[in-house]
Amino acid sequence: MKAMIFAAGLGTRFKPWTDLYPKALALVNGKSLLQRNIEYLQQYGVREVVVNVHHFADQVVVAVNENNGWGSNIMISDEREELLETGGGLVKARPLLEGREPFITLNVDILTDLNLDKLLQYHRQHQPLISFGVTNRLTSRYFLFDKDDRLCGWRNVNTGEEKGPHLGAPESGKTLIQKAYSCAVVFEPGIFSLIRQRGKFSLTEPYLDLAADHLVLGYDHSGDKLVDVGRPESVAVAESLFF
Predict the structure, then answer these.
(1) CB neighbours of 84 closer than 8 A, spacing ≥ 6?
(2) Is the distance from CB of 132 to CB of 121 less than 8 angstroms?
(3) What Rg, from alpha-carbon coordinates, does the chain have?
(4) Rounded alpha-carbon distances, angstroms, from residue 20 to 56, 89, 109, 116
(5) What do you get for the CA distance between the two ends of the chain, in Å?
(6) Which phi and psi (to 5°) does residue 98 adopt?
């Protein structure tokens, strides 16, 4: 099985570190975020890993080479010319990921102890196009699910904006459950022929687009450790949980 770690972002919330370095190389208890996610995948036997690069790309490539991929085979998806966000980055990496098996994606700045074997078991059992981890933690943007964990929409609680293929009319009495995205995803390999977006776009767009006609499921792993290391102050939180 292959995986992709999204590591190309500018890390604007992580300044001043990202004025000189890529966020992927920020340290948590002496190990970079990138190393931690590569080693996390190794716990589940995943050693074929695509890493996309843009911001201080050379530093990431040097770190990978100097450390021999931390024991994994690392394939670089080069976005130096244009930062493509998660959706565009996934499409660009298609030649490196495509095959007959499902594959996994992670965000480099998310640390979690989600059991990937359980996520994969859930995916195999229910056979959706996409399964992704979700929790009941507080955030400003949520995915919306029905009682069977099927993705129905998306909500920004700060602005009240909602969008999605299965929101339902108010009179339908359909109650949707909002859950926070964990950025750990299992995709069926056929995803590449179904994504219609091109260029720079977030994965949220194809999720909502494809959920109209395909099964996209949220796997609730509330209670697991999860830290979004998006700001410098979150490093201390991560260091208290990940040693």
Answers:
(1) 8, 52, 91, 92, 199, 200, 201
(2) no
(3) 17
(4) 8, 23, 17, 33
(5) 26
(6) -60, 140
Q: Minimal CA–CA distance to 184: which of 127, 135, 151?
A: 135
Residue 144 C-beta-side C-alpha neighbours within 13 Å: 18
Dump the DSSP string for 62-112: HHHHHTGGGGSEEEEEE-SS---HHHHHHHHTHHHH-SSS-EEEEETTEEE
Q: What is the token pair recorded at 82?
A: 């244009």
Cα→Cα distances 89→72, 186, 194, Å:
21, 16, 15
CA 100 – CA 81 distance, rounded (Å): 30
pTM of the model: 0.96
Measured CA to CA, the distance from residue 39 to residue 137 in angstroms comes to: 25
What domains can be seen in the chain, in order of their start residue? 2-241 (3.90.550.10)
Burial of 61 (0-12, 13-18, 19+ CB in 10 A): middle
Which of 218, 236, 242 shows the shortest CA–CA distance to 136? 218
User: For each of the chain's 243 residues, which pLDDT tens digit applies?
Assistant: 999 999 999 999 999 999 999 999 999 999 999 999 999 999 999 999 999 999 999 999 999 999 999 999 999 999 999 999 999 999 999 999 999 999 999 999 999 999 999 999 999 999 999 999 999 999 999 999 999 999 999 999 999 999 999 987 554 557 899 999 999 999 999 999 999 999 999 999 999 999 999 999 999 999 999 999 999 999 999 999 999
**Cβ atoms within 10 Å, residue 121:** 12
